[in-house]
Amino acid sequence: MEAVVSTQSTGDTEIQLTDTIQLNLSYSNRKIRVNLALPLKSETKQETEQAHQSVKDDRMLVIQACIVRTMKSRKQLKHALLLAEVMQQLQNFQPSVPAIKKCIGILIEKDYIERLDGENDTYQYRA
User: Fold this and answer.
1) pTM, whole model, 2 decimals?
2) What is the C-alpha separation between 15 and 21, in angstroms, rounded?
3) In what side-by-side order are the strands of the sheet with 76-78?
4) To 10 degrees, the CA torsion angle through 23, 27, 30, 33?
5) What is the rounded distance in angstroms from the CA atom of residue 81 to the CA atom of residue 103?
6) I need a surface site. Which of 16, 49, 103, 127 has the fewest CB within 10 A?
7) Nearest CA to 38 among 62, 4, 67?
8) Are 71 and 122 in contact (CB under 8 A)?
9) What pLDDT was estimated at residue 120?
10) CA-to-CA distance for 36 and 7, rounded, in angstroms?
11) DSSP conformational letter for 39
12) Cα-flanking dihedrals φ and ψ of residue 77, to 5°?
């Protein structure tokens, strides 16, 4: 048996921003405690995917910032050392090697770093 603890101005099952909700003062129950907690609406699949994509984009920006900081302080660095330095500095999450490589490619396109002419595995910071 369900009891109506609150009343809504429109009477719909869906609550809108413009609706007014009032307590049903005529409600009574013999129980001492009444559980007013309603189950929360779970996130939809689209909202979950959007949240995951947002986190992924934010992490890519963090990886790029870490690469730029490292290259700015070291000026030149080999690929393996750059990967190790980025993985060591990022303690909040463990970035994958393909994600770091992708960020290095993005930074090369943006002219933040460049490959040395004679050595393809060495990067140089461009000021």
Assistant:
1) 0.64
2) 9
3) 76-78, 122-125, 113-115
4) -10
5) 15
6) 127
7) 4
8) no
9) 85
10) 14
11) P
12) -155, 140
